[in-house]
Structures
1.
Amino acid sequence: MKRITPLLTLLTGAGTAAVLFAMSAQAAPRTVQPAAGATPSASATAPPDAPPTPPADPTGQPPAQPSEQRSRPGAPTTAPATPVTANWTGRLDSGATIAITATKGTAVAYVCDGRRLEIWLRGTAADGRLKLTGKKGATLTGTIGDGDVTGELAVGDKRWRFTAKAGATPAPVLYRATAQTRRAGVDGGWIMLPDGSQIGVLTRDGSPAPAPPLDPAFGTTIVDGSTVTAQPVAGVPETAE
C-alpha cells in the first residue's frame, strides 16, 4: 500500500502538467505563414496616383495641346475685304457731274463740269467704303449704301459733297479715250447719265473743251473730221492714269 501511494501521486502530477500544457497551447496566439504564390495586398503594392485622364473629345479627336487650343477656330481674326462691282452716277454740290465704276474692288471715278474741269481718280471699293486718289492730291472717300453712294471729294483745301445713284443696268456709265488716242494728244471722258444724255470733257493738245457726243455702240466720236476712239472704264488701272 505504501508503494502504491507514491505512484498515484506521480501519475496525478503528470496528468495535471499535461492538462496545463494543453491549456497553455490553446491560449497562445497562432502565427499564420503566407501561402506560397499569394498575391500581395493592393494597399501594399499600389503605385502613386496617376494624373487624371482628360475626358474624351465628342468628335473623336485627341485632346488638343495648349498651343493647339490657342489656334483653334473661333479666335478673333481679321476678315478679308469684300470687293464691290457696281456703277454710280450723280452730282457734287458744286454742280459738277460724277461717275464711279468699280470692278472686283478696283474703282475709278471721273468728275467733270462738261466744259473745262475734269478729275480722274483711282482706288478701292470694298467693305462698303470708297477710297480713291488722283493727281494734285485729290482724294475721294465715300460710303456705299443700298443703291447709292455718298461721300466727299477734296482737292487742296476745297471740299465738295456728292451723292450718286447705282445704275439700273450693268451697262457702262463711264468711257475714256483709248491709250492710243491719248498718246496722239487727244484725251476725253464721257459720263452716260440715266436719262440717256451724256456729259464730258475732251482735251486736245492740252486745251479742254466740251466733249462731242460719243456713240457707245462703237465707242467713237468725230473731232474735226477725225475719229476719236474711247472704251468703257471698268476698274482698269490705266484708264485713270
2.
Amino acid sequence: MLQSPLTQTPLQRALVWLGLACLAANPLSAAKQDGEEILRHTLSLYGSAGYISCDVQIQEEVEVYVNSIEFERGFETERRTLVHTASLQYTRPDLLFARWNIVDGSQQIARTGSISTAEDIYILAHQYPQKPELTEEPDQYENLNQAIDYSEFSSFRFTAVLRDFFDPSFHGDLLANDIELVGTRKLGKLRCHVLKIEGYKSMTLWIDRKNYALCRIDYATDYGTLQGEAAWLDWKLNQAQLSLDPQEARIQRRINLYRDPPEIRPDSCTIVFQGQNIQP
C-alpha cells in the first residue's frame, strides 16, 4: 500500500528523493526506459492484431544527373526524393498480400513486385513495365518467411521491416538494440514519439502518441548495416544450433542474403504510412 509523504519516515523520504535525483542526473537512462516501454506497446499492438492493412510511401534520397545550361560545366547532380509506393494486407497467422512499385529517376515505374498467397503456397512475382523482356516466372515458396526473405531487397526492405512488427518471433530482435526516446514531434496533424534504435539495426520510429501505431520508419540499408545484422544473426545461429532450433535454416538463409546483397540498392529509406487498418 502506498504511503502519504506526510506519513513516510525520514529514511523513506530520503530514498525517494535519492531516486528522483538519480533520474535527474541520468536522463539518458530514463529515456531508454521510456523508449523501450513505448516500443513494447507498439509491438503488442501489431503482434496481437488479427488483421493489418496499410498503404505507404517508400521515400529514397538519391543523387541524379541533370543537364547544365553551361556547356563547359557538363553534367551536374542534385538531390531528389524518389517516392515509391507499397501496400500490405496481413491476416494472422500466415495469409499475406503485399505489393510494391519501384520508380526510376523520372518517377516512372521501373519494377513492380508482389507476394500473394494461394492455398499453402506463397508466390513472389516481379514485373518490369519498361522492359517486359526481363520479367520471369514467379517464384513459389512453402512458407511465408521464405517469400519475405527473398523479397526484402526488391522491396527496399519494406516487407522485412514490417514483419519485424507483425510477427512476434521477430520482436526480440528489435528489443535487443539500444532504444532511446529522443522526444516528440509533429508529423502532419499527428504528435509522435520519436524513438532512436541503434545496435545491430539502425532505425528511427515515429509512433502515434495516442494509439502507438507506426507513422513513419527511417531505416538504413547500406552495406555496413547489413553486415551488422549478419553478425547478430551469426550469434543467433550459434544459439539455434546449440538448442537444435528448427529456425536454424531460416537464420542461415538471411545471413547468406546479407553477406552477398544486391549491388544496386539505396543507403537509407523512409516508410511513411498513408493509411492503416488494425483489427483484433
